[in-house]
Each structure stands twice: as structure tokens, then as C-alpha cells.
Write a structure and sequence with these properties.
Layout: E1 4-5, E2 10-11, E3 18-22, E4 30-31, E5 37-38, E6 49-56, E7 68-71, E8 77-81, E9 84-90, E10 94-98
Antiparallel strand pairs: 1-2, 3-6, 3-9, 4-5, 6-7, 7-10, 8-9
Length: 111
């Protein structure tokens, strides 16, 4: 569990099954199989997004700080902490986890 958010060491403790993630660095742009750049503003059905886990609550079992998680951006709560935007999610709202430790036999899926 984290007691600090970002490099500014802001004291914050997530409660229960909450996960605080940062979408910073996730441009939203993607490339097609042919190499065409598709801007983030193009809506293609229901598209999930990746984010980096910044802090987790005491009851979170599947993810840890630094993991990348897949979530539905239409089901999120945004919060600003010291001028930076974060997304607050429940652990059950995460669709997948991408982390180095998952090669130890864990699937990373939380359904």
C-alpha cells in the first residue's frame, strides 16, 4: 500500500478496494496493422485504456504499485491531486493487469 502519490510525496492512503491510477504518458494514439496513426479522438466502439497504478487500498489483492492495468474509461472517477490528474477505480473495475511478476504463473486477469 502506498502512502505517497508521485514524486511530490503527497501523503495519501487509498481505502478498501480502491486503486489510484495515472494515465499520464498514455497518449491514446495507436497504429493500425498497416502503420496508419489513429488519433485518440477517434471513437471505435467501446475501447479500454491502459494506466499505471500509483496507489492501492488495503483490500486490493491483484495489483501492486507500478503495474499497468486495463480499465473502461467510461466508468471512472477523475481526481486532481497537486495539479496532476488521476483516475480512481475499484479493483473489480479492472479488466487485466500487465506486470513483470505475472510470468510467475499468475494470469493477471481479474474478472
Amino acid at each position: 500500500m502506498s502512502d505517497a502519490v508521485g514524486d511530490d510525496s503527497l501523503p495519501i492512503r487509498m481505502l478498501h478496494d480502491r486503486v489510484l491510477v495515472s494515465t499520464e504518458g498514455e497518449s491514446g494514439e495507436r497504429r493500425s496493422g498497416g502503420g496508419i496513426v489513429i488519433p485518440a479522438t477517434v471513437a471505435i466502439g467501446k475501447r479500454l485504456a491502459w494506466a499505471k497504478v500509483i496507489a492501492v487500498g488495503a483490500n486490493v489483492r491483484t495489483v501492486t504499485e507500478g503495474d499497468r492495468v486495463l480499465y473502461d474509461p467510461t466508468e471512472k472517477a477523475e481526481v486532481e491531486v497537486r495539479g496532476k490528474d488521476y483516475v480512481l477505480l475499484r479493483e473489480r473495475d479492472l479488466h487485466a493487469v500487465a506486470a513483470e511478476r505475472l510470468s510467475e504463473g499468475h494470469t493477471g486477469l481479474y474478472l
